[in-house]
Design brief:
CATH class of the largest domain: Mainly Alpha
Helix content: 40-55%
Largest sheet: 3 strands, antiparallel
Keywords: DNA integration, DNA recombination, DNA-binding
Strand content: 5-15%
CATH topology of the largest domain: hpI Integrase, Chain A
Number of domains: 3
Strand order of the largest sheet: 1-2-3
Shape: elongated
CATH superfamily of the largest domain: Intergrase catalytic core
InterPro entries: AP2-like_int_N (IPR028259), CB (IPR044068), DNA_brk_join_enz (IPR011010), Integrase-like_cat_sf (IPR013762), Integrase_catalytic (IPR002104), Integrase_recombinase_N (IPR010998), Integrase_SAM-like_N (IPR004107), Tyrosine_recombinase_XerCD (IPR050090)
Distance between the termini: 85 Å
Family: Belongs to the 'phage' integrase family.
GO molecular function: DNA binding
Pfam families: Arm-DNA-bind_4, Phage_int_SAM_3, Phage_integrase
Length: 371
Amino acid sequence: MASFRKRGTTWQYRIKYQDPATGKSKEKTKSGFRTKKEAQIEAAEVEKKLYLQQHTIIQNQETILRDWLNEWLEVYGAQCEAGTLITRKRYINKHIIPNLGNYKINQLSKIEYQKFINALIQKGYAKKTVQTIHSIFCTAINKAVELEMLSHNKYRGISIKVENDEEKINYLSREEVDIFMEAAKGSPFHHYIIASILLRTGMRKGEMLALKWDDIDFENKTVSITKTRSDRGIKKPKTKSSIRTIGIDDTMIAELKQYQLWQKKNKVKYGPDYHSSEFLVISPNGKEMGEYGVNKVIDSILKKTKINLHHISPHGLRHTHAVMLLESGADIKFVSERLGHRTINMTADVYVHITKKYEGENLLKLESYLS
């Protein structure tokens, strides 16, 4: 049975129980309740958990969230891919711990957590980024529930709503593409080539970094995409649909031949200081380009534009490629296969703003045809 006493202006409860693991008597106390009724309500809940043999929940509810997240990463981090672990660590250390880390694991309310999510949205983070942060947090909380540190995950059903999300889509308009590529032409040649490859092929950054000269078929004007490369090495794409051969236009062919010649001249220029690499995308001295290097290239081109274009990532050039194809009248199945999407539905979901835009025009064409 719980006992209660008033300490100053607040109330305290005390519950004595036997730890089933050790057989020893233990005591659970908590103070700071404004009224005796509040203390009685929580004490009753604790006694219920003790009756249901949920001793682990009682013992661990004082755990600080920061400590649990770090322990979760340490113990269970090896069970996910290296890239996934890096992402989890980055978001936990950059966003979750600085904002929520001082809460006890059982004291973070759903409304306080919702405020945290709302703050991320207000700071301008993309909906996908906020969803990723929420997913990481819930994965850690679900493990705590599984280990009986918590009775349930109360953070389900959180609202992640980004207003005017379509306006924040990461791509350039046709006019902006001209401005962007004009700035690229005034940049180092390998910067221009990186921008041109991403824009004209729609391939992912990692797919471009994994390209070798053997992947380019100059005669048939195609490029084979069979792998992806990151700062953690080379691996096969996640899905079979990502392994594909796509056509490239005459302009891209001419630029790649010019780029090949540029590399040969640099090899002579740098002599013994030249780094031989098996990859197509390299720096002037032959060193391999990495993920961060590509990001810096795109950022530097943006800074050279005559007007201040909104920020766009390397992946945004992939989106731009898809948008330009759809706007030029390309079939969505062709676009889906070219991008290496798993399904046409995936393509349609991502570019619904474009397909809706041309729905009215297509209906007018149908009306004109039937008339």
